[in-house]
Amino acid sequence: MPKKTLYVAKIRNGTVIDHITAGHAMDVAKILGIAGRTNGGIVTIAMNVASKKLGKKDMVKIEGRELNPDEVDKIALLAPHASINIIRNYEVIEKKEVKLPRVLKGIIKCANPACISNSDEPVQPKFYVESEEPLSVKCHYCGYIMEKQDILKQF
Amino acid sequence: MVCAVEFRSRDIISIKDFTRQEIDYILETAKAMEPLAKSGSDMLRGKLLATLFFEPSTRTMLSFESAMHRLGGSAIGFSEPGVSSVKKGENLADTVRVVESYADILVLRHPLEGAARLAAEFASVPIINAGSGAEEHPTQALLDLYTMVKEKDAIDGLNVALVGDLRYGRTVHSLSYALSNYKVRLFLISPESLRMRREVLETVKGKMKVVEKTALEEVISELDVLYVTRIQKERFPDPAEYAKVKGVYKIDLNLLKDAKKDLIILHPLPRVDEIAPEVDTTPHARYFQQVWNGIVTRMALLALILEATE
């Protein structure tokens, strides 16, 4: 039996985002503000890795960082099958599947420049998820429908 | 079965928030208001309406004020945001929380989409959306439906064409949503650049037959209702785009020679040059009757919301 190859090195402490829809690893990195120009920890990105579940998948491993709930929701927007593994001392101490909430509050803005939620009002933008794949969300205030491309432009 | 109590203190934000039965109930109430509109009534004595018009407007504001006065109520308000606290930088959420102390009901017109929904979240008195940017104008849709019922007896079975600016025109958005409650065939006639908004199309397409076209001549002979809109210069981000489509539809006697004898032509007004004056004296023209129908429809809404009808 052929030995399984580990494509990227294990991390000691941090987060592994697995089962990212193939082709979206860079988008996930963008959402998390990973641009490679800061003095953060090691980040490894694997793309088009064979996956039983998805056929092909992407992965992002981030040394020394655990994600907050807003970041997890943002990842769910682009990679609804992703799983988040929290690593401490090389061990997976927590594993969770991302889940896109039915209502998104505050994490994205309405792409309609004429929407009241983009003006100086004391409200958070609010969206209803109409479809997860392909992604489609509707603004609570103006009804504008946004797709993945509209959302990606915001990060 | 729908009854008056369902409308008490209710906001009118989007026509999508209403079922066919509720819309029919409003239209029946509007019919009952016709004699009161002429004779006057004390139904809303002691009630106060405030019009908050953040966009220049005369007729919609006058229509609401006229409706309120005919029911014995009073009206206050502004139609020039330049002289209000808005100019000093106040946001809409604060404005409605101040003005709600002055009145029993607020009528809001605002240049931004979603403004009425936001206002309703902050106000404790009912809000009526009198136009929210290019998004919606629900009371116009109700008066348009009332005109169709009055002129044609029923809405089911009609072939209706909406012509002109379907992208930025809030009246055609609300009217499309409203018509999708009925068995109508809807023709959407516009230049390519002014096609009906996606969110509207997606909502109405599954509910009724919708045909998108550019040439009005191709369908004019099939129509029962021709709803014409102005191409609104003020909503175009790019003046060059406006210049390309300005005057693209012109309703004149030559076009109407192929129309059904009982075709009615509606327009939310004001018009510029999209309907030739020669059409005004034909039996097709019903746009000035719409203005009266607007008063009785708004009387019905005010009476229902302010608990004055049984």
How would the blueprint of this fold be written?
The complex is a heterodimer of chains A (155) and B (310).
Chain A: E1 14-21, H1 25-31, E2 43-51, E3 55-63, H2 69-78, E4 83-88, E5 91-97, E6 103-105, E7 126-131, E8 136-139, E9 145-147, H3 148-152
Antiparallel strand pairs in A: 1-3, 1-4, 2-3, 4-5, 6-7, 7-8, 8-9
Chain B: H1 20-39, E1 48-53, H2 59-70, E2 74-78, H3 92-99, E3 105-110, H4 115-122, E4 127-132, H5 138-152, E5 159-163, H6 170-179, E6 185-189, H7 198-204, E7 209-213, E8 225-228, H8 239-245, H9 253-256, E9 264-266, H10 287-305
Written description of the protein model:
The complex is a heterodimer of chains A (155) and B (310). Chain A is an alpha+beta fold. Chain A folds into two domains: 14-97, Alpha-Beta Plaits, CATH 3.30.70.140; 103-152, Aspartate carbamoyltransferase regulatory subunit, C-terminal domain (SH3 type barrels), CATH 2.30.30. In chain A, 14% of the residues lie in helices and 35% in strands. Chain A has helices at residues 25-31, 69-78, 148-152, and strands at 14-21, 43-51, 55-63, 83-88, 91-97, 103-105, 126-131, 136-139, 145-147. Chain A has a five-stranded antiparallel β-sheet, covered by helices on one side. In chain A, strands 6-7-8-9 form a four-stranded antiparallel β-sheet. Chain A is elongated, with a radius of gyration of 17 Å. Chain B has 310 residues and is of the alpha/beta class. Chain B has two domains: 4-136 and 292-305, 3-Layer(aba) Sandwich (Rossmann fold), CATH 3.40.50; 138-290, Rossmann fold (3-Layer(aba) Sandwich), CATH 3.40.50. Helix content of chain B is 35%, strand content 15%. Chain B has helices at 20-39, 59-70, 92-99, 115-122, 138-152, 170-179, 198-204, 239-245, 253-256, 287-305; strands at 48-53, 74-78, 105-110, 127-132, 159-163, 185-189, 209-213, 225-228, 264-266. The longest helix of chain B is centred in the N-terminal third of the chain and has 20 residues, at 20-39. Classes of the chains: A alpha+beta (155), B alpha/beta (310).
